[in-house]
Specification:
6 helices; 8 strands; single chain; 207 residues; 29% strand; alpha+beta; globular
Length: 207
């Protein structure tokens, strides 16, 4: 999942790096990211000692996007509640957008009888967010997740229970692009070719 997220971000013309969940607060601050994405993973935030995002992530003053486990740990670390669910979701699902959100930016695959946007997505989770931290609002729901997507517009913190990075979420790459380009504000002019040329030049100078 993490590698796929990075690939989608780079395909949007934005440079990114992958760092481990136990990266120190000092290293987070030193890296100085313009935006941060917390990826999914096989763990459960209800475990005794689950992986947690560095606290500096939420104090950096930059947009943060949590995907699946990333959304769950963000919600729990900021004061929400996550529980195990009897209704596990794995595979194709439909998510109904219940409120305007910059993350979705008018994207939809279908419309429900009430005219609301409906997205075809890929789910893979057992736990789910049961209550939101202060400042957050629900922006999408699914049959198995009352908070399929959440947003704190003031801090620009967003979360999706579904996976944006896989091809089984048809508009997932567009949603990630909305985040890195429209919310984070990256220009989208980075290319692997330019990065390669820059790296080769740097190596030649050093040698």
């Amino acid at each position: 999942y993490t590698q796929l997220i990075a690939r989608r971000v780079r395909e949007s013309g934005v440079y990114c790096e992958i760092h481990p969940w136990d990266m120190s607060d000092a290293d987070v601050r030193a890296f100085g990211a313009r935006g941060i994405i917390l990826s999914g993973g096989p763990e459960s935030v209800t475990d005794t000692q689950p992986p947690k995002a560095p606290q500096a992530v939420f104090e950096a003053g930059v947009p943060v996007l949590g995907i699946c486990y990333g959304m769950q740990t963000m919600a729990q670390q900021l004061g929400g509640r996550v529980t195990g669910s009897d209704h596990r979701e794995f595979g194709y699902a439909q998510v109904t957008v219940t409120a305007p959100c910059r993350l979705f930016n008018e994207l939809f695959d279908h419309r429900d009888p009430q005219g609301r946007a409906v997205l075809d997505v890929w789910m893979s989770h057992g736990d789910r967010v049961e209550s939101l931290p202060e400042g957050f609002r629900a922006v999408a729901i699914s049959d198995g997740a009352p908070f399929a997507a959440i947003a704190d517009d003031k801090r620009q913190f967003y979360g999706t229970q579904f996976h944006l990075e896989v091809v089984h979420t048809p508009d997932g790459a567009k949603i990630l692009r909305n985040f890195v380009r429209n919310i984070v504000g990256c220009t989208g002019d980075w290319t692997m070719r330019a990065f390669k040329d820059e790296a080769i030049d740097k190596i030649r100078q050093q040698v």
